[in-house]
Amino acid sequence: MCKKRQPGTLSEVRRIVARLFALLPILLGLSFISFTLIAIIPGDPVIALLGLEAGPEAIAVLRAKYALDEPFLVRFGAWLWAVVQGDLGRSIQTGRPVRAMVIAALGPTMLLASAAMIVSLLIAIPAGVIAATRRNTPADFAASIGALCGMSLPTFWLGILLILGFSIWMPLLPSSGYAPVTGDPALALAHLVLPALTLGVGLAAATMRMTRSAMLEVLRADYIRTARAKGLTRRAVVWKHALRNALIPVVTLVGIQFGQLLGGVVVTETVFSWPGIGKLTVDAIFARDFPVVQGAILVTATLFVVINLVTDLLYAALDPRLRGAA
What we know:
Elements lengths: L6 H33 L5 H6 L5 H10 L6 H13 L13 H36 L4 H15 L2 H15 L15 H35 L2 H8 L4 H29 L3 H6 L5 H10 L3 H29 L8
């Protein structure tokens, strides 16, 4: 006997497909804007590569090789057509495929972003719940002051303090560098701890404040009073019923934060010499390596909008009332 197709599931699939198609104009507009901004940056990538002593013939040959002598719209059209075919071009400085360079840098960035989000959530969710359930108590004041300090600390300053404390004064962890997880996991974890803490503390501050505000609002709801009247334990009411509904605005914030982390945390990656997408982009900008900059921007922008889509889908998982919403 054939099973009928679930209408809710079909409408959800259609909504996801429609959202994916809606992302295309966003990515196209972002690509054009970034391509324009890169084109007007002062400096010639050919001169940066060959040096000031290069002759005009060598300069002309290299400019023709990378189509830098073509009009702006022609160059953008050629680049866009290559992107559609999966080709992000080649680096002017190294000659390597940009796609390979971006993928190689994306791995360390995703590792750092994931570790920072884990640190943030392990700190923020319990602290926010405790602050909300114990409002106007010393625990609430301590959590609020800690969140204020975390939001106020500059990332580079906190990173330097951690290096001084745990790499110089107490040489327990490496001060910089990166080790792949596929090699020595213990060494990779040792290199990951300090940059993940540097990012996680700042992220936890904002997430904790959002969790506290959302929990305070949910705890005043009628269904929470009903759950208490039924005799449910305080732990069940708070962690099972209240927290799930309070997580909806928190998911929004976490999705935005994770998208920003995947875009490359330039300061942290620079302080700890972390070979991520942010450091790759900054190095390419200084070297006037425009294909690398454009490819990195396109990939990170795509990841950001996809993460926003995934965040919207998580809403429906947390609150069934939102399923089928536009």
